[in-house]
Design goal:
By secondary structure, the chain is mostly helical. 76% of the residues lie in helices and 0% in strands. The protein contains 6 helices and no strands. Helix 1 packs antiparallel against helix 2 and helix 4 packs antiparallel against helix 5.
Length: 246
């Protein structure tokens, strides 16, 4: 919900800038400064900005609906979410040890191992005298299948944990670059804002700086939220949902 609202704020700024760009383009075309092809290109850009803004509005509505379904709110309820996530790097001194510990606490693997035990018990208690009994070979295959399921799940979980760890490390590198980019955008915006207030900068150039800052803030926030989400998935990989990262 928070990120959907941020996307909406950015789309609103981009739409406002595109609208002014379009107005300037129309005037430029009417006075013969630009060509017909340049006019159509600007028109397409304006339509794209409008479409993006409308899509962002729909995504906010969908995000609130998903939240309502998750925590039991009424569809019309739209709580204001103000908590900001504090970025903290993932602290793992020994990756193999961390993975082993996480695997040991994995409820999915525990349940599969319990299934193996139950299958073993049923095999041990196999009744040769029961005329309705399942073939012994079939029961033994059930045990082997359960054991194979545990082995495969452990392998997949280890691979997932390694993948999550690498993704987190990549995000931490991106965080440093995004943080620097945000600082540059903030400085540039303050300079442009001062110039605009002094009357030496056009409204259009001011809007461009505002959009650049909003884009930098949005990129930075997405990295922070994705990083936090992946950290949670790393420590509880059985809750990992790849779609939540999109």
């Amino acid at each position: 919900v928070v990120m959907a609202n941020r996307d909406l704020e950015l789309a609103k700024l981009q739409n406002e800038k595109a609208k002014r760009d379009w107005q300037i383009t129309l005037l430029s075309y009417d006075t013969g400064i630009i060509s017909w092809s340049q006019l159509k290109l600007a028109e397409a850009g304006n339509k794209t900005a409008i479409t993006s803004y409308e899509l962002a509005q729909k995504e906010v509505e969908q995000a609130y609906q998903d939240l309502s379904n998750l925590i039991g709110l009424k569809p019309e309820d739209k709580p204001i979410l103000v908590d900001e996530i504090e970025y903290t790097p993932l602290e793992v001194d020994d990756l193999d040890f961390a993975i082993a510990r996480i695997m040991a606490d994995n409820p999915v693997i525990w349940l599969l191992e319990q299934t193996v035990e139950l299958e073993d018990i049923e095999l041990d208690l196999y009744s040769w005298t029961d005329p309705m009994r399942e073939p012994y070979k079939a029961k033994k295959i059930d045990v082997e299948k359960a054991e194979l399921s545990v082995t495969d799940t452990k392998k997949q979980m280890r691979e997932l944990l390694h993948t999550l760890y690498q993704s987190i490390m990549q995000l931490e590198d991106r965080y440093k670059m995004a943080e620097q980019g945000l600082r540059v955008a903030e400085t540039e915006f303050q300079d442009k804002k001062l110039q605009y207030e002094l009357g030496v900068l056009s409204k259009q150039d001011y809007l461009a700086a505002e959009v650049n800052l909003a884009e930098a803030q949005n990129d930075f926030s997405k990295i922070v939220y994705q990083h936090q989400s992946l950290k949670q998935s790393f420590y509880k990989p059985w809750t990992y949902d790849p779609m939540s990262m999109m």
